[in-house]
Amino acid sequence: MNIKHIIKTLSMIDLIKGFNVTLKALFREKVTIQYPEVKTPLSPRFRGKLALMRYDNGEERCIACKLCSAVCPAQAITIESEERNDGTRRTTKFEIDAFKCIYCGFCEEACPVDSIVETDIFEYHMTENHQRIQTKEMLLATGDDYKEQITKNRAKDSKYT
Amino acid sequence: MTEKKVNITIDGIEHSVEQDQMLIEVTDQLGVYIPRFCYHKKLSIAANCRMCLVEEEHTKNAIPACATPVSEGMVIKTKSKNSQTAQQATMEFLLINHPLDCPICDQGGECELQDLAYLYGKNSSRFDIQKQTKPNDNLGPLISTDMSRCIMCTRCVRFGTEVAGLPEIGTMGRGESSTISTFVESSIDHELSGNIIDLCPVGALNNKPYRYTDRTWELDQIDSISPHDCAGSNIYLHVKNNLIKRVVPKVNESINETWISDRDRFAFDGIYSEDRANHPLVRKNNELTHISQNEGISMLIDKLQAIKDKNSISALISPASSFEEQLLFSHLMAENQVSNIDHRVNQIDFSGDALDPLFPSLNIPLNEIKDMDSILIIGSTIRKETPIIAHWIKKAADRNCEINIINHSLDEYHFPIENYLLSETSLIAENTGLIVKAALSLMNKEFPDHILEHLSKLKEPSPAHIKTANSLIGKKSFVISGLVARNNKYYSLIRSYIDILSSMTDSSSGEITFSANTAGAYISGCIPHRSSFGRTKDIGLNALQISNNNNQMLILYNIEPDDCLFKDELCKAIESAETLVVFTPFMNDFFNEHADIVIPIKTPYETCGSFINATGVLQSFNHGLVQQNSLQYNQDILFDSLDYAKAEPLPFEDIISKTQLFIAESKANINPNTELPSINPIADTLECSNNYNLYNIDSIVRRSQPLQLTKESKIEPES
Known about the structure:
heterodimer; A: alpha+beta; Alpha-Beta Plaits; 34% helix; elongated; B: alpha/beta; Ubiquitin-like (UB roll); Rossmann fold; 4 domains; five-stranded mixed beta sheet; 26 strands; 30% helix
C-alpha cells in the first residue's frame, strides 16, 4: 500500500468527484416529462395505430387490392372483397389484428390509393381479447376522426419523400 | 422418316435441332425463355405482338421468334443489347394504352403483361397522352370483359376459330381503333369458351363469378379430377380458407390438353348451395331430427340386418361417386346379402346385361381419336355430353377425318359432317342396323346365321347408309356411341350392332358413359349382375326394376330423383319404400318429405378418391383438401358402417394397383361380342326424354349459379 493511495482514501476525493456529477445533474434541464399530462413531441413519420381513409366526397379509398395484406410481415390484415353494386371493387371485410401488428408501416407504403395510413395514436387499450380485431368501420372511423392530423403530418413529410 | 437436322447457335451454345420448327418452339424445348404474348403452343401463329423479337447475327433487323423457322447456321442472341432494345420498345408500345389498374385487376399476380413488363420493360414511359378506353361487351354470365386492358394478341379469336370451331368473337376495326368483340351483341355460349380466360395474357377476359373476390397469391392449388363427365379432365382447384374459389385446367396432353369445359370450370359453385345436407338426420314422429353420425350408421345397419327378405332391400349409387366409395358400398351391400344394387339410373334397356363388357370404355386413348380417318357417332349430342371428347373429334375432323352421325336431333357441330342420319329416337337402333347391313353387303365376311337372319329382316339400306358404312371400311375408323344411345329403349340392340359393325369393319368402337365413374361402378360391382372385379354373383334387380320393386328398404347413395331417366318411377319408389336411407350431399323436397335416415356425404370436390374415366384410366384426386367442419371423408363413413356391420374388412391398401392391373388385363382380353340381346318388353312401355341438357346432369351442376344463368341451361329438354 503506497503513500499515494492513503492520501486518496483519506481525502475522499472520489466521493467529491461523484457528488460533483450529482450536483451538476441537479441543476441541469429535466428530460423526464409528466406523462400523461405532458407528452413528448412526435415525428411526422411516427407510426401508430392504423386507419383507413376516405376521399373528400366520403367514398372509401380502399379498392381491395390486398397488397397491404400481402406485404404485412405479421399477417395482421385480413381482407375479403367483392364487386359492389356499382361495379367497383370493394372490401366486405377489412380487419387488423392489433396484437399481431408490429407497426412497420409496410402496408402504408404498399397502398396504391393511400387508403391505409398510420396515425400518431400510440396509446390505446382494450379490455377484452376480441377487441384486438379492428374492423373496417373502426378503421374508417379512426381515419375520419384524425384526418386533419394525418394530412398535416403527410404534408410536413412530403418534401422528404 | 428421319427429320433433317440443322445447326443453330443460341446464346453462344451450338445446338443441332430438327428442321421445320419455329425458333420459339426450339428455345422452349431447350429451356431458353423468349417473351411472348400472341404465341400459344396450341394455337396458330399470328406474330402480331412482336414481343418475341430477337437478334439474329446475319439479319439486319430483329426477327420474331414465333414466326421464323430455324435454318442452318442461325446465330441467335436472345439477351443481346439489340434484342433487349427491341423487346423494350415493343413493351413500351404495348403499355401506351394499357391502363395501370393492376391493383383492381383479377389478373394481377398471374398476368403475363405484368411479368414481362417487370422483366423486359423500362421503368418509365415517354408517353403521357390520355390512354384509350374501349367499351366492354357483355359476354354472358361466365366471362367478364375489360377491353381497355386488351393488347390485341388475338389468342381468344384464334381459339374461337381453331379450337372451339365456332368463331364467336372476332377483331373489328383497324389500327388503334381495332377491338375484340362479338359482332352482334350476344353471349359466348360455346361449351369450351371458358378457356379464353386462361388464354388471355392480360385481364381483358376474366372469370366473372370469381371477379374481384380474391388475389391469385392467396390461393392454394390442389390437383383434382373433374367429376362431371367421363373424360376425366385434370383440373386444379384453387382454394382459400378451405373454400374453392375457382377451377383452372391442369395440362394433361393425353386427356384434356390445356382445355377444360365450362361445366368443369364453373360447376363447383353448386357445392356452396344453401340446401347442403349438414347433419345426420332421422325421422321421429314424422319430423327429421338431428342425430350423431354413429347413431345414424348404427340405425341403418340395424334396420338393414333386421329385414329378413333381402330381396326387398335395394340400393342405388351414383356413377359420380368415387371408385373407393362404390367399392365399399357394394361390399357393404354384398356382406348383407343385398344383391339389388345398381348405378344405371339413366338406362331403361337392360336386356343386354349378360353381354356387358367388364366395364364400358372407349377402348382407345382419347388422344388417338385425332388420328382416325373416319368416325361414326351413334346416339350422342357429343358436344353437350363430353365437350372434351367432342374436341378430340374436332381435331380429327381438322385432319380431314370423315364424320357421320346417327342421332334424333339436329345439333350444331363444330366439325363438318358427311352424312347426318336423322331419325326418331326409337329408330336409332334400326339406323345402326341398316349400316351393319350395308357393311355386310360391302364386305365378304363370315357371320353367324342368326345375325344374318336378323339383318335380313331389316329394310334395305339407303344410299346414305351405304356411304356411311363404306367410310368405315379399310380405314382407321372409330364407332362411338353416346348417352342418347344409353337412354334409348333399344340400347342393348344398338350396342350389339356396334360390336358387330366394328368386328366386321375392323374399326375400334367405344362408348361415352354417364358421369365421371361409370367404369368404376362396373368394376366395383355396383351392378346387379356382377360382383366386384367381374366376379359372378346372384343376379339382383336392375335400376328400373328396383324402382318398381316393393322395397322395405331403399338406399340411395348420392342419387337424386332428378339424376334419373325414369324419375317418376323412382319418385314412386321413394314414396312407397318403408325405410328410405339417403347418403346425400344435398337435401331436396323428396328427401325432406320421405327420407327416414339422412347421412350427409361430401361432393367429389371435398373428398378424396379415384375416378376411372371413359378410357379406363384410373386417376386419384384431392388428397390435399383440408376437411371442412367435422364431417369425415365419404370413405370413412362407409368404413364405419362396415365396422358396425361386423363385415369382413376389405383389403384396401393395394386397391389402386390391383384395379389398374385388372383394367390392363381386361383391356388386353377384349372378346368382340357378336351376340344379339333378347328384346326387353318392359322398355316398350316407357317414354324417355332424350335431349341432353349440358347443365342439368348432376346434383352439383344443377345447383351452380353461374351455369344456371347461361343460355344453354334455359333450353328445355324435349320430352
